[in-house]
């Protein structure tokens, strides 16, 4: 079992920045692909981006050039740096972990991001 604890959400004005962090309670962190999803009110949960165990990131087109995912395999953390935020980025953001061998998945509790003037 892996526990994921998300943090860093809040209220920010359009054009602003936020940094989300996720701490994972596992000694096998390097065996997990990590990702960030988001869910806006009335919409399905969608993938924002992910990063492989080797550190290769990928992003949804809607956030490319604005968001950056990074991971620290020593501290067992994954961060999402969000710049140039837009009102449409408003959502609950969830950390996600998938074991590269078993494909078991785990979710964080979510952190609210609100972009509004």
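Sequence proposed for the structure above (117 residues):
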């Amino acid at each position: 079992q892996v526990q994921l604890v998300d943090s860093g959400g809040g209220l920010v004005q359009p054009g602003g920045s936020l940094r989300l962090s996720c701490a994972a309670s596992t000694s096998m962190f390097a065996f997990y692909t990590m990702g960030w999803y988001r869910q806006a009110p009335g919409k399905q949960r969608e993938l924002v981006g992910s990063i492989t165990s080797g550190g290769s990131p990928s992003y949804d087109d809607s956030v490319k050039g604005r968001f950056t995912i990074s991971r620290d395999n020593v501290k067992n953390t994954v961060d999402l740096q969000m710049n140039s935020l837009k009102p449409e980025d408003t959502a609950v953001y969830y950390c996600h972990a998938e074991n590269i061998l078993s494909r078991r998945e785990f979710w964080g509790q979510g952190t609210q991001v609100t972009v509004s003037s």
